[in-house]
Amino acid sequence: MSTASDQAPVLEVAGLRKVFAGKRGAPDTVAVADVDFTLHAGECLAVVGESGSGKSTLARSVLRLIEPTDGRIRYRGVDVTGLNPAELRRQRRHMQMIFQDPYASLHPRQTVYRLVSEPWRVHRDLMPPDPRARVRELLDQVGMPSHAIDAHAGQLSGGQRQRVSIARALSLRPDLLVLDEPVSALDVSIQAQVITLLMELREELGLAYLFISHDLALVRLVADHVGVMYGGRFVEYGPAERVFGNPQDAYTRSLLAASPGLGESSASGGGPR
Amino acid sequence: MTALLEVRRLTVEFLTDSGSPIQAVRGVDFAVDAGQTLAILGESGSGKSVTSKALMGLVDFPGVVGGSARFEGREMIGLGERDLQRVRGRGIGMVFQDSLDSLNPVYSVGSQLVEALRVRMGLPHQAARARAVELMSEVGIVDAERRFSSYPHQFSGGMRQRICIALAIALQPRLLIADEPTTALDVTVQAGIIRLLKRIQAETDMGMIFVTHDLAVARMIASHVVVMFEGLVVERGRIDDVFADPDHPYTRGLLASHPGAARTWRDLRAVAGDPALEREEVIADVDGI
Fold this sequence. Notes:
Oligomer: heterodimer
Strand order of the largest sheet of chain B: 6-7-8-3-9-10
Number of strands of chain A: 10
CATH architecture of chain B: 3-Layer(aba) Sandwich
Structural class of chain B: alpha/beta
Largest sheet of chain A: 6 strands, mixed
Shape of chain A: globular
Number of strands of chain B: 10
């Protein structure tokens, strides 16, 4: 069934580096240092790390929302790093991003229709013949009722807003989604719904995910591969079972040890009961 | 023997322009003893934070608090600001999620600790300074003597939260209310702060109320739990018992939706018994006040 182009990786990143120059004599900050990874269609690569580890800078550099200092990013074999702005825009339709805070990423006074159809104003050639009907389809795909099409984002809850963000990203039929902490701002029960939705969409549409998260318990459930980031580097990178089951790096082990799971009881710290 | 804090039929209503008040807390009962940690567990809009604020007299108009909260036998609800101030700090300490942003940026952290110790504990300056340095090392700030004159912006978020914990425990409260104190922090920092709170509790026998949305964090710190949903306590008990054998469908749903309980994403369950979108709308309404 699968052709050669299906098997070529969706994304290949090699030697990616981002250095922020220090101001007024301050030393430079190396936010991302020589990161390599490969992402195939239908795969989920999770990048985990703590604040300041460089995981969000990595996510943005991959889309060239931040210009990388060095390294190579290939999308389906095309070197994205060398593209001029117009060419980059044409490639970017295939790579969409979901942000952490849907209260900040959606304009509260715009209607759901306007928000979801907006990408077509930029990529005019992808404008469907009946945009309203297509927006309804997309809403249905993300589990929103079709009457939500005329609601304002400000009337929606966090979970609903994140569904709208996903519908908007899907409007360009991308094959790569960069998800930067997509459920961290949501309640745990809503988190479960949105994660289930994302994973079902991945199966249905064969999407590749670059999934940025600090939540190891969650990553364990969704990732095929995991990159553990510390100080801008992947200190560990491999199949999820191996990273979780048999971590090689000391930092990965300490991160796993600090992550609260439901199994631990309060007795372990020796406090009064 | 009476409990350190005994809360009975606590209600909080918010008056609205449309006439019908929003009932954020609808009759909540619980008790906390010295040396015990009670987790108040719930999602956004469950009323957990409003409950903790109501105990301290921190709900302002148009919020209206009813019911009873007795701290060491003394009624707190309806107490005047002057009396409340005598209880706050020395009797009941507080640490909030955004405490780390409540430090004054133009004073060094040391001088903020000294101020609290002098004004509230009546210590003379030298003694207050010595105690401040001591407190800073107690909460795990390395090289406290040198860091005494650092300003809040020179500390990381986790370190600022530690300073806020130092400020709260400086007054040796008999009860500490911690509202999502680790939510904004990294997991390794969170683990450190939880260990710190447990150690302080072991040393001082203070009671603690730990408000959180995070089941795993509640499990790490608390001995007892009340689960709140839409302003009501739907489940209560020893935390091990509740987690092992939850009674209420909402608690069961909450546990099933936690990634720690699942093996793959297919095991995740949204909260049972409620059509998802309807429930989200309820939450959005409560958030909207």
